[in-house]
């Protein structure tokens, strides 16, 4: 490490900025954000700095730099754009033992400004020791995207309650408690700006911690398979979980994104296997009861043919805290993968997600589904394909009614089959469909955005790219 990252408290202490241009303006902004008392030394001043000086927000010395300007300064920034002057500032500062930053010149600097993610009071600083500022900024952007917008509010919320929690819990219980607050429903509520509900949830959490030291459950949608389709919250909670209970449809690539030392338990038997769901409920309750953070990971979205509703009923019945994280349901993953819009101004203005496995009695009126202007996505339906075709035909659908089958959507080996009610049986006989697969029925199933090579050539020509 070439530099030690530290956080400097500037609160109302004097910092000198030499130079009054655009670059100085940026540095002054950061220094003032950190509460510094800024003096700008420069023959000329950027108009915005001039306004700040006029408002008394900074001091301005209209002069060329002289070492005497450094008297009393706790830090100096040289931003003159002129290397000779900058070098004089650097030398004068070093002689007086004042930390100095010369903008874009690590050699002349004794400290450098990092790229900053500001979620005050949480602040992340990224540095590259002057080697690659652009790369540091890129890393900053990536971190920026990972951190919730209201993280600062969460830190303040927690800070304001530290003392009360310190009085209520012992040191050991406290750590687990704060970890649960930071990653569980209370944090979610604060991050959503629901302060009052968060307050109540925290009080409840404090009570349970005092009574038992309960764990919690994250009910997470793992999406259709491609791990890049996980939500940021799913990633955060997967990184935090002690145990992961996962289904058959959760891909290995998604599991790899979980905490390395988390225990993995496979709970995915064939759909509806006898007693399996009750077994899962009991396991969730037991593990959370041991104080563990349990990630219940389900393919797609937990609330779309995922039995997520039953699981939170069981958790609520046992007073176990839980968080639900949505996932991209297979229909949406498959539609995007096949570039097949589920609704379209010309083709369809409504869509149904249907369980193809459900018995006849549980299914709605197929006359509605027989309308090709209504999109029907059938989950768990490939094995029932002949029955589904027969029902649609009986309800009035034409033999030309478009059908698409999307196999292993977003997964390696994804396959898309397109046909009609009339010919899809023959097509699937020729190329048997492997699970998991979805049926999409209706006019949108025949949709294809025409990509003529001519359009690309024209676009290239317009951009002046030689063919
Ligand atoms: N909760 C899940 C659905 C579970 S039901 C979700 O929201 O996606 C299981 C059915 O989902 C499978 O039978 C299949 O029809 C569909 N499915 C899940 N993943 C799929 C994928 N990657 N490609 C195609 N279909 C998928």
Structural write-up:
There is one protein chain. The chain has helices at 22-33, 47-54, 83-96, 133-146, 151-168, 171-183, 185-191, 195-211, 232-238, 252-255, 276-289, 308-317, 330-338, 366-369, 385-394, 424-430, 453-462, and strands at 14-18, 37-41, 59-61, 75-78, 100-102, 115-119, 122-126, 216-221, 243-246, 263-266, 293-298, 322-325, 350-355, 374-379, 402-407, 415-420, 437-441. With 467 residues, it is α/β, with parallel strands linked by helices. The chain folds into four domains: 14-113, NAD(P)-binding Rossmann-like Domain (Rossmann fold); 151-212; 216-328, 3-Layer(aba) Sandwich (Cobalt-precorrin-4 Transmethylase, domain 1), CATH 3.40.1010; 332-450, Tetrapyrrole methylase, C-terminal domain (Methyltransferase, Cobalt-precorrin-4 Transmethylase, Domain 2), CATH 3.30.950.10. The strands form four sheets. Strands 3-2-1-4-5 form a five-stranded parallel beta sheet, sandwiched between helices. Strands 10-9-11-8-12 form a five-stranded parallel beta sheet, sandwiched between helices. It starts with 13 loop residues before the first strand and ends in a 5-residue tail after the last helix. S-adenosyl-L-homocysteine binds at residues 224-225, 249, 298-301, 304-306, 329-330, 334, 379-380, 406, 408-411, 436-438.
């Amino acid at each position: 490490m070439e530099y030690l990252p530290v956080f400097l408290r500037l609160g109302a202490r004097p910092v000198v900025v030499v130079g009054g241009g655009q670059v100085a303006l940026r540095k002054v902004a950061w220094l003032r954000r950190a509460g510094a008392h800024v003096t700008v030394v420069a023959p000329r001043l950027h108009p915005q700095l001039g306004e700040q000086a006029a408002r008394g927000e900074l001091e301005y010395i209209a002069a060329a730099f002289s070492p005497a300007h450094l008297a009393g300064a706790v830090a100096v920034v040289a931003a003159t754009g002129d290397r000779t002057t900058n070098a004089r500032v650097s030398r004068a500062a070093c002689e007086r033992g004042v930390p100095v930053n010369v903008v874009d010149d690590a050699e002349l600097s004794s400290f450098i400004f990092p790229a900053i993610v500001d979620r005050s009071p949480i602040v992340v600083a990224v540095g590259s020791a002057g080697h690659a500022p652009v790369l540091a900024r890129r890393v900053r952007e990536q971190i920026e995207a990972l951190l919730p917008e209201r993280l600062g509010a969460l830190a303040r919320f927690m800070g304001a309650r530290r003392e009360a929690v310190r009085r209520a819990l012992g040191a050991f219980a406290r750590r687990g408690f704060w970890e649960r607050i930071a990653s569980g429903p209370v944090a979610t509520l604060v991050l959503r700006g629901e302060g009052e509900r968060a307050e109540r949830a925290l009080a409840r959490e404090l009570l349970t911690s005092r009574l038992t030291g309960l764990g919690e459950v994250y009910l997470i949608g793992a999406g259709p398979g491609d791990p890049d389709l996980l939500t940021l919250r799913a990633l955060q909670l997967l990184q935090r979980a002690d145990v992961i209970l996962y289904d058959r449809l959760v891909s290995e690539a998604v599991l790899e994104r979980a905490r390395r030392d988390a225990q993995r338990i496979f709970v995915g038997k064939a759909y509806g296997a006898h007693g399996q769901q009750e077994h899962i409920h009991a396991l969730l309750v037991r593990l959370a009861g041991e104080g563990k953070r349990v990630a219940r990971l389900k393919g797609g979205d937990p609330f779309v043919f995922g039995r997520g509703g039953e699981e939170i009923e069981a958790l609520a019945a046992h007073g176990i805290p839980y968080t639900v994280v949505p996932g991209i349901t297979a229909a949406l993953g498959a539609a995007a993968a096949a570039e097949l819009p589920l609704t379209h101004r010309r083709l369809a203005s409504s869509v149904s997600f249907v369980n193809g496995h459900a018995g006849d009695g549980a299914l709605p009126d197929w006359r509605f589904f027989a309308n090709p202007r209504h999109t029907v996505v059938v989950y768990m339906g490939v094995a029932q394909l002949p029955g589904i075709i027969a029902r649609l035909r009986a309800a009035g659908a034409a033999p030309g009614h478009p059908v698409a089958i999307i196999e292993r959507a977003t997964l390696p080996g994804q396959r898309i089959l397109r046909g009609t009610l009339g010919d899809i049986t023959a097509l699937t006989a020729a190329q048997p469909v492997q699970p998991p697969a979805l049926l999409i029925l209706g006019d949108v199933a025949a949709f294809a955005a025409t990509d003529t090579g001519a359009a690309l050539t024209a676009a290239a020509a317009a951009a002046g790219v030689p063919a």
